[in-house]
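Example record

The entry below shows one chain as it appears in the dataset: sequence first, then structure tokens.
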Amino acid sequence: MNIRDAFRQSMDMGQMVSMAYLEDLTDEEMMHRPAPESNHIKWQVGHLIASENNLLNTAVPGAAPALPEGFAERYAKETAKSDDPGAFDTKADLLSLYREQRDASLAALEKVSDAEFDRETGFDYAPTVGAIFSLLGGHWLMHAGQWAVIRRQLGRLPLF
């Protein structure tokens, strides 16, 4: 296994767990908050997509497809408290945007040279290009852990 394989495996694991947790949830259920100050899944998925776009463009400038006009602003910290379903994209639209971003991330991973993985990014939480590619899987898994709680509150059985 090489470093690209490890990053791809991490990204694939994040995708497998996250998509399994989202698969049977409705748009309405994705607005459920497990606690009053917690973020609902719709906001979290939008945040993850906007984050992947930003991280990928930092790692490989211009590699991420453009997000729809106003997308990043709809999923900024300032909108996390909104319970208005109309303020957020549909599940179908979010998953389509996710797939576009992830496909671009996987394509960019194949083009980055070994030396570029060590290039500094300026982010404390992902200080190198390699750390960004590592984060692309882990970030989704971190949020998916929160979705497991929501799924149980909605009466779903554990998946994993």
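Notes for this example: The CA atoms of residues 60 and 143 lie 24 Å apart. The mean pLDDT is 97.
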